[in-house]
Amino acid sequence: MTPSDPFFSLYSHGFARVAVAVPRCRVADPEFNAAQTIALLHEAARSGAALVAFPELGLSAYTCEDLFHQRALLDASEAALARVVEASADCPAVAIVGLPLRVDHLLFNCAAVVHRGRILGVAPKSYLPNYGEFYEGRQFNPADHAVSTAIELCGQQGVPFGAETIFEAEDLPNFRFHVEICEDVWVPIPPSSYAALAGATVLVNLSASNITVGKSAYRHQLVAQQSARCLAAYLYSSAGLGESTTDLGWDGQALICEKGEMLAESERFSFDSHWIRADVDLDRLSRERMSMTTFGASARRHREQLARFRTVRFALGLPRAEVLPLERHVERFPYVPSNAALRDERCLEVYNIQVEALVQRMTAANIRKLVIGVSGGLDSTHALLVCAKAMDRLGRPRSDILGYTMPGFATSSRTLDQALRLMQAIGCSAQQIDIRPSCLQMLKDIGHPFVDGQPQYDVTFENVQAGERTSHLFRLANHHDGIVVGTGDLSELALGWCTYGVGDHMSHYNVNASVPKTLIKHLVRWVAETKQVGGQGSQVLLDILDTEISPELVPGDAAGQPGQSTESAIGPYELQDFNLYYVLRYGFAPSKVAFLAWHAWRDAQAGRWPEGGHVARNAYELATIKRHLRTFVWRFFKTSQFKRSAVPNAPKVGSGGSLSPRGDWRAPSDSEAVVWMAELERVPDAAPAPSSP
């Protein structure tokens, strides 16, 4: 592995760096405007950008009004375009610049797409505003007035001309962009909507857009919604300093959005030329379109409109064999919002989903009692809190929750104490059942050497305990006319970390099945910090959070340390939940998941724990990320599906997905993991050393 390994370039993982530039301009001074444009183009290209969008009519300035009918200005604008084309000869980035163009004896407001000394095509504006402060219909014609579909421009013959054009990079998968101009996105059905259905993943809007009070917020909504509905990235520019202020004001706002999420925004009212950039995830957009079947249905419904689009292909020629780190922020905890206010809102919503689901199941089944095993660990703690809120919602006493803690051969005094204190704080019925006698009987019946004094702590020894607990709970539910509430979480299902059948895998209804471990940690902490179970209850919740996660099925040492550590066996949940999110939600290849994890976790100072905003000191080297991802891939794809194919009913909680065979995930129980394990080998064993300053 060398620093030039393509793994360390964002372009090797389905990303594209795009930019929006707002140069300072002069009205009716194309030479000056071209110089400003060229300077920003080269600056953005040096950062690794593949595309740079500039404002509407940026080479002439937008506010020329009737000067657009002057030949001198039109000639100068075309000359300015020729300068940009010449300056782009050794530039890998695509430039999209705005200017007025004469075609078929008509004048059009156009966007010229320029790359490496060529004009790839020209897109005229489709909708001309002629209301309020706008009088574009006085100077320009809309796109559908054009007769020609190819023009001569800057000495180049056969330049594609038309609004229904998609530009596709042959050497960057899924990089297909479409250009519209300002008002085009303000209409009920923007041209970019059809372009997205025709395959464009990046939608570019060259806008001038003067500023009035409140308009900036509306632009945010407009751009975010268009990118969300089109499952696309959307780049939006506005004219800035230098445009005429005879009657209007300008703020130079630039926006980059991806599927409803704002990735970058420029400073407004800047006195200097400025630009923004963002790394858009083309792979994600393609995956979303592939999985959202209604996107394809929309394309079929509008196939006559889409048939009008043509594709202009070109070779982008960006270097891959160099380190180009991702600048996009990657959350360490994708299931847990990093914003404190949003986290609290998320916690309340998660609980409400789980509680509403449990209430409905109890009501539909005419059940009055809930039976739950309480271990003193995280999952059963969260499930018990959900049960308590469900009883409160139904107006029933919490004593109708029948809580049982069932110590076995390896139960620690700490977790037993926590289970008892928790049940007392919740106010549920609390009983303790020692499962060791029944386990010994089972071990004796099957001839296990443990009963003869041989400490053979094998999978049979472990699962006898898990099975006895579950067997007790089901018979207790029969006895008390109740249902068993499951406690196993999404992370355990993903990794197969549960005892199949008569074990913690099974219940009558599982409230936790689509809630990952990292989110459960925060949910429990949220309840503790908001004092929802009183001061003593909050303290026991904090104690549970500080307890090492362990199945406690193998006895510990004489010092009281647990004999098993879950995360030592299957990897840190913070990494495995990260892996799960990107594999389940987006279907990313292991190498891309590793690339994202490396960016999120390589710096110990960069991340923050969701809980209370404390600095997360954890950092993982690439080799560690790869090792734990290998564990995830093998367990998820090869060994664990048979457990997921037979899970109890449970509510889907998050957009990150569930693993129910009746919901988000349908997979064969006997598939192989070969292709994922092989693809993982694209990941190097170490990252390049940081460059010297």
Plain-language structure description:
The chain is an alpha/beta fold. It has two domains: 12-314, Nitrilase/N-carbamoyl-D-aminoacid amidohydrolase (4-Layer Sandwich); 340-680, 3-Layer(aba) Sandwich (Rossmann fold). Helix content is 37%, strand content 16%. Strands 13-12-11-10-9-8-15 form a seven-stranded mixed sheet, covered by helices on one side. Strands 5-4-3-2-1-14 form a six-stranded mixed sheet. Helix 8 (340-365) crosses helix 9, helix 14 packs antiparallel against helix 15 and helix 17 (573-584) crosses helix 19 (622-639). It is elongated and about 100 Å long. The protein starts with 14 loop residues before the first strand and ends in a 13-residue tail after the last helix. 49% of the residues are buried. The model is unreliable at 607-615 (pLDDT under 50).
Question: What is the topological layout?
Answer:
Layout: E1 15-22, H1 30-46, E2 51-53, H2 71-87, E3 94-103, E4 106-115, E5 118-124, E6 150-153, E7 156-160, E8 165-169, E9 176-181, H3 191-197, E10 202-206, H4 215-229, E11 233-236, E12 255-258, E13 261-265, E14 274-281, H5 282-291, H6 293-301, H7 303-306, E15 310-314, H8 340-365, E16 369-373, H9 378-394, E17 401-405, H10 413-426, E18 429-432, H11 436-445, H12 459-480, E19 482-486, H13 490-495, E20 509-510, H14 517-529, H15 534-545, H16 566-570, H17 573-584, H18 590-601, H19 622-639, H20 641-644, H21 674-680
Parallel strand pairs: 1-2, 2-3, 8-15, 9-10, 10-11, 16-17, 16-19, 17-18, 19-20
Antiparallel strand pairs: 1-14, 3-4, 4-5, 6-7, 8-9, 11-12, 12-13
Helix pairs in contact: 1-2, 8-9, 9-10, 9-14, 10-15, 11-12, 14-15, 17-18, 17-19, 18-19
